[in-house]
Amino acid sequence: MQVAVIGIACEFAGDIHSPTDLWHALEESRDVGSEIPRDRLDIDSYCMHMFNKDNDGHFRQKLLRRGYFLSANQWDTFEPSFFGLSDAEAGSVDPCHRLLMLKFVHLLDAAALYSKIFGP
Length: 120
What we know:
mainly alpha; elongated; phosphopantetheine; Thiolase-like
C-alpha cells in the first residue's frame, strides 16, 4: 500500500506556525525555549512552601524555570464563526482542540484541498 503525504501543518513554541518556520528554526539551531511566563505559572508563589524549608538554597537553584510554550497569539487566532461556532460555544471548546481545528484548516490549505472541499 502506498501513502502520499500531500500536506503538512504544525505549531510549536517560539512562534513556529508552519513547516517553513520549523525548518528555519532547525537550520538556525534556534532554542525556542523561554522563561515560564508568569501568566501561565507563578513558580515562586507555587513553590513558596518548599522555599521556606530550603535552608541551603539547593531547591531554588535546581528549580526549572524554562520551558517550551506557545505564545498567547498562537492561541488567540481562532475565529469561531469560521467553524460555525458562537463565541460562547468556542469558549467551551478545549484550547488544544481549537488549535487542532485551526491546524487542520492549514493542513487542507497546504494540500491544496481547501478550495476543493469548501469552494473558492
